[in-house]
């Protein structure tokens, strides 16, 4: 059978379901790690014409992947997407730090046991490349490939609500990214390792089936449109379909091991977002009235050099996102 064998964790998620399609489109085979047979069936239903190129491994806890001997047997490329979500959990260590650190180290350790592995891609977040107080600074320029280590205090007092959730999520991502760096330096693996750092990922979902299932950044953007308050985060967004295409491109791209690849879409602002929605979706009765504001920016030098992506126009991304949500909320 032609093509490489690509292993994907978090395969039934927002990004993962798109990545499966892009990897299959490139002529490869996939082995997906999913939490249940139900999730495996979801993937089969999304790609019924490629069932002969899709395998599944049931892994209820990705941090325990080391116990699943043979999960990576014969695999050429590994994409590690699985990890905690901002709105899932409350305890810093249990819900945000341990799962992402253990999951990352497990996938690296298991990959080191297989001679067939050529490249491991760890999907982190743009927040792992900025200090904890960077999340409340705007404007703020996020740098990549500097080797800078950010200090975190696991015993600090976190604010209530979404701000606290974001900081806990960021803490986990920072700690895991540093643990990954330390592991690579110590283990000196034979395979290449690349980390990917998407900004806030939004767009049409392959897994959302109803308005009640709206979540993640999509939820944030939808709620913001219908609120009178200020936006809860600077506008630094990337289309989920672009993230998937960028990840799939890494298979054939020549990227130096250890490179950090940020991913974000064309520059845009909350005011432009609100204006577009008001002009093109009058039935939404958009309440949000943003002022022009400074926002985050991020160093895309390495990404542009090694992936040479053509990013979807932000208006096209917003349209695809809103079209789907309007249909769900009318149903």
UniProtKB/TrEMBL annotation:
Gene3D superfamilies reported for this sequence: NAD(P)-binding Rossmann-like Domain
Q: What InterPro entries does UniProt report for this protein, alphabetically?
A: Epimerase_deHydtase (IPR001509), NAD(P)-bd_dom_sf (IPR036291), NAD(P)_dehydrat-like (IPR050425)
Origin superkingdom: Eukaryota
Give the protein name, as stated in the record.
Predicted protein
MF terms (GO), sorted A to Z: oxidoreductase activity, acting on the CH-OH group of donors, NAD or NADP as acceptor
Record carries keyword Oxidoreductase: yes
What organism is listed for this UniProt entry? Hypocrea jecorina (strain QM6a)
| Family statement drawn from the similarity comment of this UniProt entry | Belongs to the NAD(P)-dependent epimerase/dehydratase family. Dihydroflavonol-4-reductase subfamily.
| One protein family per Pfam | Epimerase
